[in-house]
Amino acid sequence: xxxxxxxxxxxxxxxxxxxxxxxxxxxxxxxxxxxxxxxxxxxxxxxxxxxxxxxxxxxxxxxxxxxxxxxxxxxxxxxxxxxxxxxxxxxxxxxxxxxxxxxxxxxxxxxxxxxxxxxxxxxxxxxxxxxxxxxxxxxxxxxxxxxxxxxx
Length: 152
Prior knowledge:
This protein is α/β, with parallel strands linked by helices. The protein has one domain: 3-Layer(aba) Sandwich (Peroxisomal Thiolase, Chain A, domain 1). It is 33% helix and 23% strand. Strands 1-5-4-2-3 form a five-stranded mixed β-sheet. The longest helix has 14 residues, at 35-48. It comes from Massilia genomosp. 1. This is 3-oxoacyl-ACP synthase.
């Protein structure tokens, strides 16, 4: 599923990955400010040479924690370059259940199948973001390439 080879092959491509450290921790006295997630998202977009607002969706391994929903909303409100009428949040746990640390890899596999659907898929480009209990935040920009898009 994951490979650095075959750069002209169709499928799900990770265009950029970025990580950052979040000072806030669950049950800490610090307020949720989404500093780490904001930094990771901005860095991933910059590395991919794209704007977050140009992507079709965002996805995460979120499991319904209110604090993470707040963190995501804060980070996206800072990172979106302009208002979008629709920027759906796909949550892998709604389809497969709680997966813990496997959520990022499972999300890639899930999106590889989902994004390949031309009429019912979420779109061809997205932002993935994940949070660890240790404060680690990560963001990825992904695109689904088809054989016809590679021929251009």
